[in-house]
Amino acid sequence: MAQMGRPRTFDRRAAVEQAMFLFWQQGYESTSLSQLKGALGGGISAPSFYAAFGSKEALFREAAQCYLDTYAKVTECLWDDSLAPREAVELALRQSARMQSGAGHPPGCMVALGSMSAPTAEHALVAAPLMASRARTRAGFVRCVERAVAAGDLPADTDASALAAVFDGFLSGVSIMARDGVGHAVFDAAISALMRVWDGRQAG
Q1: What is the torsional sign of CA 51, 57, 61, 63?
Q2: Rounded to whole angstroms, how far apart are CA atoms 192 and 204?
């Protein structure tokens, strides 16, 4: 009599979270199937892995969505019209910097580092959700600047895309610096200095 297949011994949500941490730390192409199986625990076999997730690419997409639904929410305040534009920008910067340099997960931002997750053309589409998230954050900064111009808080001749790039570029830099061990206190002070760029543009 044929034996029934070995039952899954792992919690799917927890498994996806562990895969997310591994992809966050190493990127897509540098993460091997054996590393994923080890991170998922429970002695999961290759057949069980494919039965549960379909493919490495499918697991990456699920892990990326897990990140977007949790850690990436730190910049959603850019779309909150109940906040003043300057307040929304500063809050997004401080929340993101705190998250990127926090404990309990890899340093940096999986979305920002996603440009390095699948560098070859063969796998470029794998990181598409992360690219879309970066575009949304960039658009959020632009929208805040445009709101400030419309409200008369910033001069009418303000280049919204250029000023937004200052803030968006800062967050991308935080990802690299956090990987190098730069602490939150440095980022927090840098954000205070960075916001003076906004203040220096305020309409008189």
Answers
A1: positive
A2: 21
